């Protein structure tokens, strides 16, 4: 057994994993790692990237560059042109990111499923009664980005960003072990609520990037501000950014979770069951009426 496999086997034990990633000073460790990851010194960057790759399944073959000045630059890497083909069918919405599908389904009685046996109030996540009403009987899907995945996210269709709401919060791990143990986890963590108006259909789609331990910063390319634990700016940021299908919207400083909400009349593409890995640009929802 390799060293990597041995370490992975220990860390993947539920109790040990939960203790290592949650019963520590999450906020301060997150701020420290955020600082450390941006140091552009090969004496720090090279071993930091090597350590990260030891613990995570990282594929850099489709990255646009092969050398990185810092761990942060490697985490937030861009891809080679054409590495993520975007499905052109206007009757679909594409996945905004790479990810593993977690819970998905209908919004029923104002609640969504976090994991088997756990539901959370949509109001607690979105903090917007109008949005909660809008998505009654609509659909949602949770996309979990692992630490080694491509961490940028993109527009699911031609759209205009109407508003971004930043909600500061905790930095719980969002891996399956924590999701199955911490009730209302997504509602506790730092997150952004991004309202998108699709063109030309007019559907209102909402993306909620949720940060986590070691990853509590969200950069949006159409806003000149970094949303992070120390951000004290306006919670509601009006916006009028026009984005094309597949155009970059932003990135997590490392990786985390995106929850997508669509109104009634839009549904998840068939065959995308829980545990399915999807890539940015792959059809995720269809606009065809049910």
Average residue-wise pLDDT:
82
Number of domains: 2
| Biggest sheet details | 8 strands, antiparallel
- The helicity comes to 10-25%
Q: Low-confidence parts, pLDDT < 50 over ≥5 residues?
A: 6-20
Order of helices and strands: HHHHHEEEEHHEEEHHEEEEEEEEEE
End-to-end distance = 50 Å
Briefly note the structural class of the backbone: alpha+beta
The strand order across the widest sheet is 12-7-8-9-14-5-2-16
Strand content: 25-35%
Explain what the structure shows:
The chain is α+β, with helices and mostly antiparallel strands. The protein folds into two domains: 3-75, no CATH class; 92-286, no CATH class. It is 23% helix and 30% strand. It has nine helices and 17 strands. The strands form four sheets. It has an eight-stranded antiparallel sheet, with no helix packed on it. Strands 6-13-10-11 form a four-stranded antiparallel sheet, with no helix packed on it. Strands 1-17-15 form a three-stranded antiparallel sheet, with no helix packed on it. β3 and β4 form a beta hairpin.
In short:
The chain is α+β, with helices and mostly antiparallel strands and 290 residues long.
